[in-house]
Amino acid sequence: MLPGRRDPAEAFAGNLRLCLSRFSASLRRAKRLQKARFCLIAWGRGEVSAAMQKSRTPLMIGWEAARANAVPALIIQGIMLGLLIAYYTNHAVFSALNHLADYKRTHGLVFVIAASIAAGALIPEIFLVLFFQRGRPNSRNLRNLLFTVPVWGFDGSLVDLLYRGEAAWLGDVVTLPVVCAKICVDQFGYNPFFAAPFGVLTYEWKNSGISMRPVCDLFTWKHYRDKIIPTLLATWAVWIPLMAIIYSLPLALQFPLFGLALSFWVLLLTYMTNRFAGKIEADAPLALATPD
Question: What b/e sequence results for 106-119 when a residue is b if at least 16 CB atoms lie within 10 Å of its CB, and e otherwise?
């Protein structure tokens, strides 16, 4: 090697150390920013300052929620799309789903209410106990179920009624005009005028200690603008593709597949919200497998 020239191996090692040092510094800065952001949210307990309200419009809040839910949404949409393709191309999947459809037709409203409660209330609560409470249920889980069981039972029966009403009105056929019409009725009629306000109202009512304040606020434009519109934007980003898949199936399969999508969706959001709240680290083992 000529005098005054660095050994290539040493140069490479020096560059690698420099890159690692810069990457580590970036991670530390990102972690500090994430902690500061979480502290701001936790400190406010849902209340934001006047300055933040001015800078973050409902459209911005809805867009941020849609971006935050992008990964679980894509996972659920991928699973449902796979089921749709398999239903029309694989005989075993076709037979299995048709047996599920027959079961739903046989048991009617009982199946709808039971599936809704299981998907929206029981499975998420069991998941919460197993993975975030180390398998130890407590009185809070019972209180949650006393609230979520009737809410999801009622909500599921309305969804099934909506699907059957759309089939009677628009037809139980899978064509592009019919599927698009059902999506419009569902996401731009039922959702903004009932489903989203009802969902926000019920959880606000629960979180406020069964106060009548959320009911009084429900019928104001400020409440709809600040809370319902962001909810709608986040919902549309996830559920419009899912409804395109669900409405591409026969009527008897639409609610069972809706319940399946709802189960996966609530489980993923339960995991994400608990992780982001600091109850579980991104790379930590699940609480179920963590020794006492």
Answer: eeeeebbbebbbbb
Segments making up each domain of the chain, as ranges: 1-36, 58-289
Dihedral of alpha carbons 126, 132, 138, 144, sign: negative
Give the three-state DSSP class for 98.
helix
- Look up the pTM and report it: 0.68
Q: Tell me: pLDDT of 154 over 60.
A: yes
User: In a 10 Å sphere around its CB, with 0-12 CB exposed, 13-18 middle and 19+ buried, how is residue 219 labelled?
Assistant: exposed
Select from 93, 116, 86 the least CA-distant residue to 104.
116
Helix (H) or strand (E) holding 198: helix 196-207
What's the rounded Cα separation, in Å, for the pair 179 and 233? 21
pLDDT band at 262 (very low <50, low <70, confident <90, very high): confident
Q: Which residues does 292 contact at the CB level (< 8 Å), separation at least 6?
A: 134
Q: How confident is the model at residue 162 (pLDDT cuts 50, 70, 90)?
A: very high
Please report how the helices 58-68 and 229-246 are oriented relative to each other, as an axis angle in degrees rounded to 10: 40
Burial of 231 per CB tally in 10 Å (0-12, 13-18, 19+): buried
CA distances from 200 to 49, 207, 266, 279 (A): 21, 11, 16, 24
What do you get for the CA distance between the two ends of the chain, in Å? 59
For residue 228, CA distances in Å to 41, 59, 186, 196, 233 come to: 20, 11, 16, 6, 9
Query: Among the listed ranges 88-102, 119-133, 214-228, which one has the minimum average pLDDT value?
Result: 214-228
